[in-house]
Amino acid sequence: MSAEARAATADWPDAKVTGEGIRRAVRTSPANARTLRDTLLAERAATAEAA
Q1: Counting Cβ atoms within 10 Å, is residue 4 exposed (0-12), middle (13-18) or buried (19+)?
Q2: At CB < 8 A and 24+ separation, what contacts does 26-31 make?
Q3: Taking the model in full, what pTM does it have?
């Protein structure tokens, strides 16, 4: 599910990466969407720091 969320949000700006947006794009529960949001934002932050 992480890969699906990553693909769905690849071109989204960080401000648009929300639990609700992910929930709708991936069709998952609100709790899973929030977990995915936190994971994706952490990955983006780590990538930005490495660059």
Answers
A1: middle
A2: 26/1, 28/1
A3: 0.90
